[in-house]
């Protein structure tokens, strides 16, 4: 297969290594689709946790509470800072390089944890056809590692290839649910949708319900980490986010509507992978096989999209001097070579976790990162109102704060419902980031590694230049010395 070639493998400025082709609107829509969703695979647990009524209601209301505000912030900030690194750049510009690094650490780790889920889901959808991969033995472990290696190689071939594959996989993954929806019409019983929800105290697993909604409707900001690879990002990014938002909501709601309305309810059966059984009941074995194939390919799409986002984030951080310069090294096809290898290693190490543990852990870390994004967004609105914003959320500062109140409350609820195990592990990871940044600054001073000289934050258009925070660097070196 061919792909866009870069002029070099690293060591030059970003301008010297631009690809011949950048990502346009259609591939960007499907890259966002896969970074956020990938289709209804994985939403089955919401029915098990809360029943059909609350599951359907959640996938209508949750996008308004969470997805729309996050997508709007991504559109404004992504066009304000159209460069690789995305939210790391936003937080650095608003809160300083230390907190920008913490943002990058938590969101990268959250993304890697999230990516560890897709090989698990892939095998879960094949367990009825290939029982050997359903257990926890050597066959399953080898399958996870082989799949991770194959998809990592696809990322190595470059973002243009990944974007084209995302379009193909997206269409293929959505089609069987469109067919299932049509075939379900004669079997639909609306009373199944409107049945009284279970007792809200004892009959709803709120932790599983909210984590499932949250996991399936977040990560809208992930596309910002590769904004430097987008064709005319100041115009393309907002349009792609708008179309992707519509696509994601429809891809969740209508399959749930068909599945819960056409099949008698047994909440215990609604777990990850159950849509293939629903398809078999509605259309027969051929439709079940199609759904299984769509699920497998969808998980591949989510994996490569997430890995692209994670690896370009590391590349953007290296270009700003937050990570050693070798993280900016690219493959001959323009992909972040070292970033891909680091992300793939993290996925392989975390693939032993269960579905629920993966969701809870990545949601916990993701919440911390989103709080900093909200703070950075509002602070830049207040402190740099004259800065160029090619797309601007059509609300004043007060309106933006009010828009962010519901998702902030939701973040607090998700954090409060986390298990002790998830909380301890996640907080330990956060604390490690507090030590890692000053250690890297010390490594830069002692010349243990080469860092880019572009770590000073550039001024925004219409905003005063920002000075490098030498005092913060001195404090960081003292912290490393103390430890």
From TrEMBL:
<feature type="transmembrane region" description="Helical">
    <location>
        <begin position="138"/>
        <end position="156"/>
    </location>
</feature>
<comment type="similarity">
    <text>Belongs to the amino acid-polyamine-organocation (APC) superfamily. Polyamine:cation symporter (PHS) (TC 2.A.3.12) family.</text>
</comment>
<protein>
    <recommendedName>
        <fullName>Polyamine transporter PUT1</fullName>
    </recommendedName>
</protein>
<dbReference type="GO" id="GO:0005886">
    <property type="term" value="C:plasma membrane"/>
</dbReference>
<keyword id="KW-0812">Transmembrane</keyword>
<dbReference type="InterPro" id="IPR044566">
    <property type="entry name" value="RMV1-like"/>
</dbReference>
<feature type="transmembrane region" description="Helical">
    <location>
        <begin position="240"/>
        <end position="258"/>
    </location>
</feature>
<keyword id="KW-1133">Transmembrane helix</keyword>
<keyword id="KW-0472">Membrane</keyword>
<dbReference type="InterPro" id="IPR002293">
    <property type="entry name" value="AA/rel_permease1"/>
</dbReference>
<keyword id="KW-1003">Cell membrane</keyword>
<feature type="transmembrane region" description="Helical">
    <location>
        <begin position="333"/>
        <end position="352"/>
    </location>
</feature>
<feature type="transmembrane region" description="Helical">
    <location>
        <begin position="278"/>
        <end position="297"/>
    </location>
</feature>
<feature type="transmembrane region" description="Helical">
    <location>
        <begin position="423"/>
        <end position="440"/>
    </location>
</feature>
<keyword id="KW-0769">Symport</keyword>
<feature type="transmembrane region" description="Helical">
    <location>
        <begin position="162"/>
        <end position="183"/>
    </location>
</feature>
<feature type="transmembrane region" description="Helical">
    <location>
        <begin position="85"/>
        <end position="102"/>
    </location>
</feature>
<feature type="region of interest" description="Disordered">
    <location>
        <begin position="459"/>
        <end position="483"/>
    </location>
</feature>
<dbReference type="Pfam" id="PF13520">
    <property type="entry name" value="AA_permease_2"/>
</dbReference>
<feature type="transmembrane region" description="Helical">
    <location>
        <begin position="358"/>
        <end position="378"/>
    </location>
</feature>
<feature type="transmembrane region" description="Helical">
    <location>
        <begin position="49"/>
        <end position="73"/>
    </location>
</feature>
<dbReference type="GO" id="GO:0015203">
    <property type="term" value="F:polyamine transmembrane transporter activity"/>
</dbReference>
<dbReference type="GO" id="GO:0015293">
    <property type="term" value="F:symporter activity"/>
</dbReference>
<feature type="compositionally biased region" description="Acidic residues">
    <location>
        <begin position="470"/>
        <end position="483"/>
    </location>
</feature>
<feature type="transmembrane region" description="Helical">
    <location>
        <begin position="399"/>
        <end position="417"/>
    </location>
</feature>
<keyword id="KW-0813">Transport</keyword>
